[in-house]
Amino acid sequence: MVTKDHDDPIYHNVQQYQRTIQQKPSLGEEFEFGIHKPSSERVILTLIDFLMQSPSTTSLDLHTMCNDCYPDDEQVFNHLFEKLKDKMRSRWKELKEFSTKFEWFHSIPLPPDHGPWDVKICFSYGCILVTDFYTFGIRVFDLVSKEFKTTIALPACPTCVCVEEPLRVTSDSTALIFGCSKPKVAVYKYEMRKLLNARRTPTTRNACNESPIWKTTDFKWPYGIAIWRSENQVFVCDVDTKSVKILNSQSGLLLTSIQLQFRCCSVDLASDRELVVSAGNQLFIFKQSLSGEWEQYKNFSRLGSEEGSLDGPFSLVVDKKTKNIMVSDCNNHRINVFTLEGEFVKSFGSRVNTTPTNEYFCFPRGICLNDRTGDLLVADRDSFRIQFFK
C-alpha cells in the first residue's frame, strides 16, 4: 500500500514507524544488476498485518530515519518488513512452463576462444552464469539486460555449475557449486556473495583468493550437478566412474552413489524422490524407495540421428510444471523434448553449415530453464554463444 496521508480512520491513533531503505549493492561497489538509486520524490509505504488480532502498521520512509525507535518498534518493523518481502516474491511461486515452440528472441555472443559448457541462472543476484571451459572461468551476465558484468576466475577447467538458492527470502546464503576437471579435479562450493566481491581486477573476480565452504576430490570427472534443496543433497555425475554421487550440501561429504552401466553426463530432479539421468545415449528415471534407495524404473531412447534418438546427450533439464525433459543432443546438434513417461515430443535445431543462425546449433552443451519466465537457455558451444528461446 502506498499513501501520502493517513486521513482514513483506520490509521487514527496508530503509531507510525519510519525507516530509511538504503540501497545495498549486492555485487561490489560498481557491480550492480539493474539497480536504480531512489529518486528525490518522497514515498511512504504503509504496512499492515491484517492477520494479527490488533492490526499493526508501520511506514517505510525512503528519505528519513526515525531516531527515537525502541526495541518493540524494531520488532514490529522487522516482522512487517519480512512479510512484505515474502509477499513481493510470492509472484514467482507460480512456475512458468517452456512452450516447446523454440521461438528465438536473443543471443549472447562470446569470444571465439571461449567454450561455453554450462549455463545456469542465479535469481538471488539476478545474473546468468556461463562456465568457460577453455579460460578457467565463469562468465557473469545480467539476467535482464544480458550485459557482461565480470568473470570469476577458477583454479581449473569448469565442467558444470549449479546455484543453491536460499530457502528463505531473508537469507543471504546463496551458494555456487561447480565441478572442475584438469588440472585439479574437484567439486567446490562457494558463497556467491564472496565470489562476486572477491579481490579482483576491473573485469575479473578471483575465486582462488577466497576459501570454499567445502571442496571434495572424490571424483574422476564431474559433469552434471543438481540440488535437492529440501533434503540438503547434491547430485553430481561422475563420468569416469559411471555413477551419480550424492553429497551432503552442507559438508560436501559423500552420502551414497547410484551406479550405472554407462558414462553419465547430466542429472536433474523431476520431483521429490524422482531423478532423471542421461547415461550412454539413453535417459534413466530413478525413484527413491521408502528405505531411501534409488531404484531405476524406466529408461528410454537409443543411439541414432532419427527423431527420438540421441547421440551424446550432454545436458538435460526437467520442466517442473509440464514434466517435459529437454535434452541437448550434442552430436546431433539439436534439442530433444521427451515426456517423463518416455514419449518423444519434438526436436529443434540442426547442424550449422556456414554462418550460425537462430535455428542452428553447433554441439550444444549446457541448457537451463528460467521457470519464472518460461525461457530456455542453451550454451551453443562451437557457435560461441548463449541462445534464448521462448
Description of the structure:
This protein is 6% helix and 43% strand. The chain is built from two helices and 30 strands. A five-stranded mixed sheet has the order 5-6-7-8-12, with no helix packed on it. The protein has a four-stranded antiparallel sheet with strand order 4-30-29-28, with no helix packed on it. A four-stranded antiparallel sheet has the order 9-10-11-13. Strand 22 (313-318) and strand 23 form a beta hairpin. The relative contact order is 0.12. Keywords: Repeat. InterPro entries: 6-blade_b-propeller_TolB-like (IPR011042), NHL_repeat (IPR001258), TRIM-NHL_E3_ligases (IPR050952), WD40/YVTN_repeat-like_dom_sf (IPR015943).
Set down the secondary structure blueprint.
Elements: E1 2-3, E2 44-49, E3 56-61, H1 71-89, E4 104-109, E5 116-122, E6 127-132, E7 137-142, E8 148-153, E9 158-164, E10 175-180, E11 186-191, H2 192-196, E12 204-206, E13 214-216, E14 222-228, E15 233-238, E16 243-248, E17 254-259, E18 264-271, E19 274-279, E20 282-288, E21 294-300, E22 313-318, E23 325-329, E24 334-338, E25 344-348, E26 350-351, E27 360-361, E28 364-370, E29 375-380, E30 385-389
Keywords: Repeat
GO biological process, one term: protein polyubiquitination
Pfam families: NHL (PF01436)
